[in-house]
Amino acid sequence: MNLTIENILLVGSLLLLISIFAGKTSYKFGVPTLLLFLAIGMLAGSDGIGGIRFDDPQFAQFIGIISLNFILFSGGLDTNWNTVKPILREGIALSTLGVLLTAVSLGIFVYFITDFTIYESLLLGSIVSSTDAAAVFSILRSKSLALKTNLRPTLELESGSNDPMAYVLTIAFLTLVINQDQSFFSIIPLFLQQMILGAIGGIAFGIASKFIINNIKLDFEGLYPVLVIALMFTTFSATDFVGGNGFLAIYICAVYLGNQDLIHKKTILKMFDGLAWLMQIVLFLTLGLLVFPSQIIPYMGIGLLISIFLILVARPIGVFISLLFFKMKLKRRFYISWVGLRGAVPIVFATYPLLAGIDKANMIFNIVFFISVTSILIQGTTLSVFAKWLGVGLPETQKKLTPTDLLLAENPKAEMKELLITSDCFAVDKKIVDLGFPTNAIIAMINRDDSYIIPNGLTKIKEQDTLIVLADRPEVFEEVYKTLRTHKA
Predict the structure, then answer these.
(1) What integer pLDDT is reported at residue 246 of this predicted model?
(2) Quick one: what percent of the chain has pLDDT higher than 90?
(3) What is the CATH number of the domain that holds 345?
(4) Which parts pass through the membrane (predicted)?
């Protein structure tokens, strides 16, 4: 195909539309959305019906890094510190020691079943050692999978924070493959530098970003998400420039910002949620275009062996040893082991050996691609089944959220009360604007005849309405009671 600007826009928009429509129906057939995106990219590529020849790993890596910025940042913004705090140590153990153990155990296995050197084997193990944030966030949230206790925040924290560790290991072992004379212990300073500077950068830029967002006065609300995008890229690039881990920095920065009071926070969150989905689609389409399916076929046998070992042995080793000193039921450890989804991130990391030009680069890339596909296909389609089988999923009746639950989830720091309007209330048949409501309290929703409405200043209060009121502190409700002359529901 002759790729002009017009053709690129046409093909790109068509691929996006096809991906969105395919994703809408994919779960009816039990197929993960991300796998559909990948398949569409492969069908559009040089070996598929689209015939688009795309063989530029450097550009694919660039798109991958940009996409991961948005995906990790969006995941961080959605992370509720109150739910993460109780399982913070477990999450850190999984995202550091767990990743290292997975990489080493898989690397040793690869060394014994292939003609790879030990460093090449450990490089392959490192590339696929982390769970994929895009895959975990997408599959858990799109399935609305409700899990007992703190399982879900543990899985999401691990997947959002373990990419930096896998990235450092990938770069470290790639360096050892290129420079065979270098000592294994020479990578330890690099590891410490990346993680420490990454953490410091994330905290520092998070604090600075909050100050900038809340103190700069922009004329248009729509500019605030643009400002946050600029701050996100600044955090990543500046941290990377000084030798820190940019991925770790943006995730920590996003978690900090997501748990602070920000101007136009709801607008920012909605924008990043949409952008994260866009970047997931673009990333998987790009990686689907980059791969040549005909080149994967010779490696399917060895790829399947490695994939099975990763799922059934290496991942459980990483999980069980890293959680050895934490109190957790055996069934939950098994479930965490099963949710070791590999997705786009390993494929992006597999472009680094391609660009470095090492001997086994193409073989590594094709094996990694096959591992990611099998992981999404096998593990991604069975999360609900395993949750029920292991008894870690909540029953259907327990996982349905009311609008009030959703409202509290969006405003975790707010105080909330439900107030019933009786016939003797002053507020009956009054417009909200005429009530003289306290400035630090709002009527967020009204439950009227078993349906929820979002009011405005002109909305009239009716008898038997239940008002869902949010306030910034408990004492404010005394003023609210006086204003409404009512009682708690």
Answers:
(1) 93
(2) 35
(3) 1.20.1530.20
(4) 32-52, 59-77, 92-114, 121-140, 190-213, 225-254, 275-296, 302-326, 338-358, 364-390
